[in-house]
Specification:
single chain, about 90 residues, mainly beta, two-stranded antiparallel ribbon, two-stranded antiparallel sheet, 1 helix, 6 strands, about 20% strand, elongated
Length: about 90
């Protein structure tokens, strides 16, 4: 039985827990985010979502800071691993 708790919400974390690559907190799946640039997993305290581009991009604090300094992570060519063809939801005109 696992007695570990999420470092964000304090819920019990199942076996195979996720550890933040920055702060080493154990987090539940809901409070973890994979950085789309470096591909490491971070807690919600050590990551952010960039909504400024065409697609939502999950970033750790290091990659986010690099992007702010001008080391762009190729947002124009980044497809974010999902999304659709743009426009609006199916059946709706924009």
């Amino acid at each position: 039985m696992c007695d570990e708790r999420c470092g964000v919400c304090s819920s019990l974390v199942a076996d195979g827990s996720i550890e933040c690559a920055h702060c080493d907190k154990i987090v539940c799946e809901v409070h973890s985010l994979m950085c789309d640039v470096c591909q490491d997993v971070y807690c919600t305290f050590c990551s952010t979502i960039d909504y400024s581009g065409r697609f939502e991009v999950g970033l750790c604090i290091s990659c986010s800071e690099d992007a702010r300094r001008g080391s762009d992570y190729s947002r124009d060519g980044f497809d974010g691993g999902g999304g659709g063809g743009g426009g609006g939801p199916d059946g709706m005109e924009m």
